[in-house]
Design goal:
Helix content: 40-55%
Strand content: 5-15%
Number of helices: 8
Radius of gyration: 20 Å
Order of helices and strands: HEHHHEEHEHHH
Structural class: alpha/beta
Distance between the termini: 18 Å
Shape: globular
Number of strands: 4
Length: 233
């Protein structure tokens, strides 16, 4: 991969969204209070595009500890002169800077077991594929760096990985100074149970066991591929 992109230019694509209402978002970091968290991704998009401003329309939310990761992203894209594409995948309102509206909407809290309608999910997937092809055809000598900003994004990642059978509980970080693994797992387990994809700790163990087998099988396939390349080298 390093050889393939060596010397090529990068394009940075930020996909921003939101899920849950103000009550749901009390579980998540990425802002000091539920109201601030509604604007976290909107503020990140504005800062990524404009950089530091004396009076931003949506200032970065204050954090108890540390700083927003968008500070690092902005420093990199500015220093390397990397083009930025901002995609609105479902924000409460459009960012104050140029962005591409994918036609999504804020999702419901994943603990509901129905965070997003299947039709919307499939539509956003198609939009992602279409824009991927478009960027690839228009920028054949560059590669795309993908970024995301969504309050509750790491909990969503935990839910998706667990639903796919990976033993991810306790392994996904968060923006909290001390990761709230148990709280994240309670939300995920509730959502999977309501969706008919899990029934308490027994199914958790089965999903983790299945995930372990899948990871082991994938590792064996990679090792076999490496051996074959070595034999033909």
């Amino acid at each position: 991969m390093a050889a393939k992109i060596s010397g090529a230019k990068a394009d940075f694509c930020l996909c921003a969204g939101f899920y849950g209402d103000r009550a749901d978002s009390r579980h998540f970091g990425g802002g000091s209070n539920p109201r601030d968290r509604q604007y976290t991704a909107i503020a990140d998009a504005e800062f990524l595009w404009n950089g530091p401003q004396l009076q931003p329309q949506y200032p970065l939310p204050p954090l108890d500890v540390g700083a927003s990761p968008v500070l690092i992203s902005r420093a990199i894209v500015e220093a390397q002169e990397i083009p930025v594409y901002l995609f609105n995948a479902g924000l409460p309102q459009a960012p104050a800077v140029p962005s591409i509206d994918l036609g999504g909407a804020p999702a419901r809290c994943l603990s509901s077991g129905n965070a997003m309608d299947l039709e919307t999910t499939e539509y956003l997937l198609e939009q992602g594929l279409r824009w991927g092809e478009k960027l690839a055809s228009e920028n054949s000598n560059s590669y795309v760096v993908l970024g995301e900003c969504v309050v509750g994004g790491t909990t969503t990642a935990l839910a998706v990985l667990t639903g796919l059978g990976f033993a991810a509980s306790g392994k996904i970080n968060s923006s909290h100074p001390i990761c709230n693994h148990e709280q994240k797992w309670q939300l995920v387990e509730a959502g999977l149970r309501k969706a008919g994809l899990g029934q308490g700790s027994g199914s958790r163990g089965r999903r983790q066991e299945a995930g372990g087998r899948r990871q082991g099988e994938g590792r064996e396939e990679r090792e076999e591929a490496e051996r074959r390349r070595g034999d033909t080298g």
